[in-house]
Design a protein that fits this description.
The protein has four helices and 19 strands. By secondary structure, it is an alpha+beta fold. It has two domains: 116 residues, Spermadhesin, CUB domain (Jelly Rolls); 130 residues, Roll (Mannose-Binding Protein A, Chain A). It is elongated, with a radius of gyration of 23 Å. Keywords: Disulfide bond, Signal.
Length: 281
């Protein structure tokens, strides 16, 4: 009897650990018949083999949820399930065909459903006929504009948001403008991200970013993400940065796509350009 118990206990703890870990990170939640799941970043739910299964999904309070299908078509999957905006019994059903598309969002993003709050419920009306997997991610709210002279979209991926403002301001003022809209000034940590910004807003604009060396001359860092530029990606124009203001003091970076598609330094308080704000989960 003791020998049998020794075999049962480890198996129990392995199963328990699997279920607990499945609620976080990039875990795949096995096709149990429903439950409660907290989304830290990304989870994948496998469709159950039973009917009438109900999942309650939650993420942090100031974020929303985006749901896509890893295999198959999310719109077609609505035959088997209903995605509710919230966890209450009477919470509205979200449909793929009712989702609004942001003006500057990438056209190649998968079909998705976005909640308007930090909770959702997924109710399987019947078992899918194919191996359906739902990818559920934590995302930021993306406004449709920040005013009359702005454009917003999911430019990089389906969880972050970028908004261009075409009202020219100083870098300091643009930084405040982004902050007042729950966003931060742009950071360009990779070539791929910069190219995506090019595609969204063309090659002829100058945008303020959050790159600055105002605290320590010559030591550039992304203020929005609090990360150093070196040894990361950079795209300075020839002989830039040159700190070439009338009295020096060009301590902020702007994109100079009008000339060579590269970066210049400028005066944070005196020079006025457009800007791009970003919100990242």
């Amino acid at each position: 009897m003791a020998c049998k118990m020794m075999k049962i206990i480890p198996i129990f703890f392995i199963l328990l650990a699997t279920l607990l870990s499945s609620s976080y990170g990039n875990a795949v939640v096995s096709p149990l018949c429903g439950g409660r799941v907290f989304v830290e970043n990304t989870i994948v739910i496998e469709a159950p083999v039973h009917e009438n299964c109900h999942w309650d999904i939650q993420t942090q309070e100031d974020r929303i949820l985006v749901i896509t299908a890893l295999n198959g078509n999310l719109k077609e999957a609505q035959e088997f399930l209903a995605i509710h905006d919230g966890s209450g019994k009477d919470s509205p059903i979200l449909l793929v065909e009712n989702q609004k598309t942001h003006e500057r969002s990438r056209k190649d993003l998968p079909q998705a459903v976005y909640t308007t709050q930090s909770t959702a419920s997924i109710r399987f009306k019947k078992a899918p006929t194919s191996n359906l997997q739902l990818k559920i991610q934590k995302a930021v709210i993306c406004p449709f504009n920040l005013g009359t002279e702005s454009q917003c979209g999911r430019v990089i991926d389906d969880v972050s948001c970028y908004c261009a403002t075409f009202t020219k301001r100083s870098q300091v003022s643009q930084r405040t403008y982004c902050y007042n809209h729950n966003m931060k000034l742009l950071s360009l940590e990779t070539y791929e991200k910069e190219q995506a910004i090019h595609v969204a807003w063309g090659y002829e604009a100058r945008f303020w970013t959050s790159l600055t060396d105002a605290i320590d001359e010559g030591t550039w860092y992304w203020e929005s993400t609090d990360t150093a530029l070196f040894p990361g990606y950079s795209n300075w124009c020839n002989r830039q940065p040159d700190d070439a203001g009338a009295f020096g003091g060009e301590d902020c970076m702007l994109t100079n796509y009008e000339t060579n598609g590269c970066w210049n330094d400028g005066d944070c308080e005196k020079d006025e350009f457009d800007a791009i704000c970003q919100a990242i989960p």
